[in-house]
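Hi R.,

Quick one: here's the DUF7694 domain-containing protein sequence you asked about.
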Amino acid sequence: MSRYVENMQRHVHSRHMVEQDMDWLKEFRDDPDYPGPESEPVRVWRSRDYQAMLYIDRDSGMKRLTITRVQIDRYTGEYREGISWDALQQIKNETIGEDAWAVECYPPERYVQNVANMRHLWILDTEPRFGWKQLTGHTTEPEHDDNEPPAYHGGIHQIIIGGES
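And here's the predicted structure, written out as tokens:
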């Protein structure tokens, strides 16, 4: 018997993210501890392995994609841990889009809120000044003249602290 059981509510058979309706929120709205509609996700997706919820902060307008595995540890009652970088990238691509930039945030210890096995991707409105920006060939690029090399925005440059780069 597996240690993990799937949360069968709103079960999806696909390996890819499928957008869900928001009707399931109705069951929480009558709870006296319910924080209100400003805390609700604006969109929800699910695959057979993951669930992703998109939130938009009322004050800042920042978008946050919150991701959990759908399996629950039968001993602890918590969502299963372990979401790989590859899984996060695929979920971001299938929900927000392949051209979107997203980041994870690792705050100072005094601001850490580690209350569940969730990962949060903050969706950026514009391309950041940091990040790998060398084309990899993983996606199709717009057509360009074969006599001209493709335009690369940024590149790989190692910085050695206390020395030259």
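The chain has one domain: 6-124.

Cheers,
M.
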